[in-house]
Write a structure and sequence with these properties.
Helix content: 40-55%
Strand order of the largest sheet: 3-4-5-7-6
Shape: globular
Largest sheet: 5 strands, mixed
Distance between the termini: 25 Å
Bound molecules: zinc ion
Length: 721
């Protein structure tokens, strides 16, 4: 419900987890000598112990990681070569299934690698990571550029068009073929060369782009004095003082050029001129006409991307990128954004009017400018919603919330979570807890759930979900090892861990990812893969159970008195969800629309500064708001390819979330309706990517998702049919 928060943790969930997800996973059917048996590197070794083997997290040694990854890569490439050069005619069995089975050693090594990179990083590990990064990239392209391998996949794919395989096998071969084809495997040798040259040029441009943004973030710090702190919260002042001292400016206060510093400063500082300065500095990153200016780099990136997809026969980058997404075409994504846009900018007008009134009442004869928005919005929030987040926290105790997510899983998925406390499952840190997951009725073992709740040195920020082993059945049933990770602050012994409402939502969100992993029923590992504009939907949907009366009355209890959270306070939380949605939706959509416009326009003569200005003017962008990420620092889109023409995806998933939540609101049993939860599990969770997401949604809802529910959630007027 809280919209902009999703940006940060959605990104984190897309890290290594997805990489592992897509990778294959097989442990016990390799008859030949695996690398692990030959060199006894623990990180490559078969997993031993209960539950068909579990990672030896208690014995992992960072000095083994480089050789484990290198050996794992070598053995996977050997396996790939054997498949590619098999003298027999290509078949689904000897090629596709063989590919699914290959790379098991490396998968295991990557599980440990993922723990070091996300949960237990050290300077020593980061050095190894830097050494390994180009080797991992090289390994990936060695597979995607393997022509004999692609020829076999292509033959099987073409045969399947004449004689279709079973449903999930057909989906698998189509996904495999697409993956190779989209990455240039079908090109002539000459085009392939150009394709590779473009890729390498792009990757250095991406690095330059990020470095320029980083340089502007690090070099432009605004230092202020003790008499310029009016309005700023004490915690912010203390942190600013410390940063200034760390930078050799003792006695001053540092406003760094990052969102986490800019945002609270603009919200609370009463110094209007300073607000303008901080605002301008932040939104000029990469746009200062100096050595770190990104405008030319953006133009070059757009041209190269365009050329590359033209080699593949597409009109533009967006068309190429969206074909295997749920949206499928740029037009579908644009249609959604354009449908919401008018309501968003109309709401901005109302928000500005509210703010203007407050400014006037305070005797400030000003016109609201972009650097005033957060400041006056905060005053509106206090006046209209008056929500004391500290009061809310007293009812959000971590152990109770853990019971709450398990309760939700039991009601919807029929899962029972039993803590494992006898030490039989090794963990990488004493704070990590493990539960066994079983079916309530049959007792069938589903998997394990690892929870690493607390912040610590070397752990990355935010919250994320990953899995150490994914479900598959093609090679004997593999059970799931799912994990959730967050950064709650540990309480002193004997005291309760209290978290914010936002963090409680995130806790449910990440658990939604874990349930998505655990409930998988796919036969082949590749079918566990995520679809960028669909994979956040399940987790976003699960957040809605936090708002249900069952959870509120059973689990949201005062940590000292045990009293249930007062209904009036819950009401305030619910009302606050639509606060400032004009701002949040408009700044988001402006970026998402620009992302799509850039990649559907011929970039031959593009001048990003001019293009941004003219496109926004044509959209009637309110002058009080700026894009959430302006072009010269839009890292999602220009520091790599992960989110290029994918930024809309957050809203795409939100439409599904709102629409599916309304299905529960309308059901006879509400959010705990038996029939609808069964459909939820069957169509929206268990198939993962074995079913086309649009088709899966239709099976759940009986129709396509409509945007009306999203409009209601944001407090926007619903457009007439
Ligand atoms: Zn997520």
């Amino acid at each position: 419900m809280n919209y902009h928060r999703k940006f940060s943790f959605t990104k984190t969930a897309m890290g290594l987890g997805i990489l592992l997800l897509i990778a294959s996973c097989s442990n016990d059917k390799n008859n030949k000598n695996t690398a692990s048996e030959m060199n006894e590197n623990l990180l490559l070794a078969q997993w031993k112990g209960p539950y068909d083997g579990i990672p030896a997290f208690d014995k992992m040694d960072v000095t083994e990681v480089q050789s484990a990854i290198e050996t794992g890569i070598a053995s996977h490439l050997d396996e790939i070569d054997a498949i590619a050069n098999n003298p027999e005619e290509p078949t689904f069995e000897n090629t596709i299934i063989a590919l699914e089975r290959a790379g098991a050693d490396l998968d295991r090594a990557f599980v440990y690698y993922g723990i070091w990179s996300s949960n237990m990083s050290t300077p020593e590990f980061r050095e190894i990571q830097t050494t390994l990064a180009p080797k991992i990239a090289e390994y990936r392209s060695a597979i995607s550029q393997n022509r004999p391998l692609f020829e076999r996949i292509k033959t099987i794919y073409e045969n399947s068009l004449k004689t279709p395989l079973e449903g999930d096998q057909q989906r698998l071969i189509e996904l495999k073929y697409k993956e190779f084809e989209m990455n240039g495997a079908n090109l002539s040798d000459e085009d392939k060369k150009r394709y590779a040259a473009i890729d390498s040029e792009l990757s250095s441009l991406y690095t330059k782009f990020s470095n320029n943004v980083l340089a502007d973030e690090e070099n432009y710090i605004t230092y202020i004095n003790g008499d310029q702190l009016k309005g700023l919260p004490e915690s912010f002042v203390n942190a600013s003082a410390k940063t200034a001292t760390d930078n050799g400016q003792e006695g001053k206060y540092a406003i760094t050029n990052t969102r986490s510093s800019m945002d609270p400063f603009l919200t609370y500082s009463e110094e209007r001129e300073l607000r303008e300065k901080v605002w301008r500095t932040y939104y000029s990153r990469g746009d200062n006409n100096d050595a770190n200016d990104n405008n030319d780099i953006v133009a070059q990136i757009l041209k190269l991307r365009h050329e590359r997809v033209q080699l593949l026969g597409y009109d533009n980058f967006a068309q190429w990128r969206l074909q295997d997404r749920m949206a499928k075409t740029p037009q579908n994504a644009m249609d959604l954004m354009e449908a919401v846009w008018p309501a968003a900018i109309a709401r901005v007008e109302e928000e500005v009017a509210d703010m203007q009134a407050i400014a006037k009442a305070e005797g400030n004869n000003i016109t609201i400018e972009p650097w005033d928005y957060r400041f006056y919005a905060e005053k509106v929030r206090k006046e209209k919603y008056d929500l004391d987040s500290d009061e809310v926290k007293q009812y959000l105790e971590l152990n109770n919330l853990t019971d709450a997510i398990f309760y939700t899983a039991e009601k919807l998925f029929n899962y029972k979570f039993t803590p494992i406390t006898d030490g039989s499952v090794p963990v990488f840190h004493e704070d990590v807890k493990v539960w066994e997951v079983n079916d309530v009725d049959t007792g069938v073992h589903i998997g394990l759930f690892y929870l690493d709740p607390f912040a610590r040195q070397g752990k990355r920020s935010g919250a994320w979900a990953t899995q150490y082993r994914s479900h598959s059945t093609f090679d004997g049933k593999k059970t799931v090892l799912a994990s959730n990770n967050s950064n709650f602050v540990k309480a002193p012994p004997g005291e309760s861990v209290l978290i914010s409402w936002d963090d409680a939502e995130t806790f449910f969100h990440e658990f939604g990812h874990a349930l998505h992993f655990l409930s998988s029923e796919v036969r082949y590992p590749t079918l566990n893969g995520g679809v960028r504009d669909y994979t956040e939907f399940q987790s976003q949907l699960l957040e809605r159970w936090l708002y249900t009366d069952e959870i509120i009355n059973r689990f949201l209890k005062h940590h000292k008195t045990g009293e249930v959270i007062p209904p009036a306070l819950v009401e305030k939380i619910k009302n606050a969800a639509t606060f400032n949605q004009g701002f949040a939706t408009t700044e988001f959509l402006a970026s998402a629309l620009m992302d799509m416009k850039y990649h559907t326009t011929d970039p031959k003569d593009i001048n990003p500064r001019k293009f941004e200005k003219e496109t926004l003017a044509a959209l009637n962008m309110p002058k009080e708001i700026v894009m959430r990420h302006r072009t010269p620092h839009f890292g999602h889109v220009f520091s790599g390819e992960g989110y290029a023409t994918a930024y809309y995806g957050y809203m795409w998933a939100d439409v599904l979330t709102s629409d599916a939540a309304e299905a529960f609101e309308e059901a006879p049993g509400g959010f705990y309706d038996k029939e609808l939860s069964a459909k939820l599990v069957k169509y929206l969770f268990a198939p993962r990517n074995a079913m086309d997401p649009a088709e899966a949604y239709r099976k759940f809802r009986g129709r396509d998702a409509k945007i009306e529910a999203l409009m209601r959630d944001r407090g926007f007027p619903v457009p007439a049919e």
